[in-house]
Design a protein that fits this description.
40% of the residues lie in helices and 13% in strands. With 336 residues, the protein is α/β, with parallel strands linked by helices. It has three domains: 53 residues, lambda repressor-like DNA-binding domains (434 Repressor (Amino-terminal Domain)); 118 residues, Response regulator (Rossmann fold); 135 residues, Response regulator (Rossmann fold, 3-Layer(aba) Sandwich). The strands form two sheets. Strands 7-6-8-9-10-11 form a six-stranded mixed β-sheet, with helices on both faces. β6, α9 and β7 form a beta-alpha-beta unit. α1 packs across α2, α1 packs across α3 and α10 crosses α11. The radius of gyration is 25 Å and the shape is elongated. The N and C termini lie far apart (62 Å).
């Protein structure tokens, strides 16, 4: 049989004080002398009593919880998150930064999705990764007065003041330069279909730098089967002038693309050099290993949490190191 939880009245009775005194001891409201506070806390410990943090948070208009919405690239299944190298590292760094200021970080479902849990609305503020174009969640956060921080801009609203810069154009320049320095002269882009900054700004910068007649772009849906990377490889090899360099944004598709190139007898990196836009275990263990962008997820996680915490507490002096955008982990696929 489950033991009944102790209540605030049980603590008051054991400590020989009023319920109000117990409440003030844990909330910090009112004036309770240190000796009485010690007696109340000792009684609570003996009874295994813990204050109702939800009720306490409602009274203070602050629960001490930051919500994290990972969207849209993680798909609809929670296990997709652990398959993407970026997200656990981002969330871990954001959680530790929040914890250092007395806040918990909670992964929550997108509350703008029909029939989604409404847990996010109980949070003090929300971090949103990769907002989509004209994002309904961002619109709902604004309408409800919920503090928020975006990691990457809404492509339709790049001037939102609450955006953490992910430096997509700069990173694209670094990748294209690296491929060229590795010997590539005909560079293709394999990019996702979600309307997010990472996809759209990457393609835009690629097209700005590549003459129209030399552009080779293939689209693969983020939540498609991994084999779509192999299909992209087949399509690129079928071109009259196949590429000798490929920038593929997502790790699953980059791995499948390289596997197909090798399967078809194409030498990597001698014939085709490949860079992936986001690092992952699958790229470190592939044969050949695949060069990747280090998107600096820990630094971005710390930066996003710090920005939101400062919105919640403007007097907070919280400074975190900025990301070192453009870092590449050079591996065999580009001659490393």
């Amino acid at each position: 049989m489950r033991r009944q939880r102790s209540t605030i009245r049980d603590v008051a009775r054991r400590a020989g004080v009023s319920v109000t005194t117990v409440s003030h001891t844990f909330s910090g409201n009112g004036v309770v002398n240190p000796a009485t506070q010690a007696r109340v806390r000792a009684a609570a410990t003996a009874l295994g009593y813990h204050p109702d943090v939800v009720a306490s948070g409602l009274r203070r208009s602050r629960l001490g919880v930051i919500g994290l919405v990972l969207r849209p690239a993680v798909g609809v299944e929670p296990q997709h998150i652990q398959d993407v190298d970026y997200f656990p590292r981002f969330a871990g760094a954001a959680a530790l930064t929040s914890l250092g200021q007395g806040y918990a970080l909670m992964l929550v479902a997108d509350p703008a999705v029909p029939d989604a849990p409404t847990t996010a609305w109980a949070c003090d503020g929300i971090i949103v990764t990769d907002p989509v174009e004209r994002d309904p969640l961002v619109a709902a956060l604004r309408a409800g007065g919920m503090p928020y921080t975006l990691v990457g801009a809404d492509p339709a609203d790049p001037d939102d003041p609450h955006v953490i810069d992910i430096a997509t154009a700069f990173i694209t320049d670094r990748v294209l330069d690296h491929l060229a320095e590795s010997g590539a002269t005909r560079i293709a882009l394999v990019v996702g279909t979600d309307a997010i900054e990472w996809n759209e700004a990457t393609e835009r910068r690629y097209r700005e730098r590549t003459p129209p007649g030399a552009q080779r772009v293939r689209y693969v849906a983020e939540r498609s089967e991994h084999g779509e990377g192999a299909v992209a490889a087949d399509e690129l090899l079928a071109l009259p002038e196949p590429p000798d360099g490929v920038y593929c944004l997502t790790s699953d598709h980059a791995r499948a693309l390289v596997d197909r190139l090798v399967e078809r007898g194409v030498r990597v990196p001698e014939d085709v050099r490949v860079v992936c836009g986001s690092d992952a275990d699958s790229l470190r263990s592939s044969a050949p290993t695949i060069t990747a962008v280090d998107l600096q997820p820990q630094a971005l996680g710390r930066q996003a949490a710090a920005a939101l915490l400062t919105l919640l507490e403007p007097d907070l002096a919280l400074v975190v190191p900025p990301p070192e955008h453009g870092a590449l982990v050079v591996r065999t696929s580009t001659g490393g």
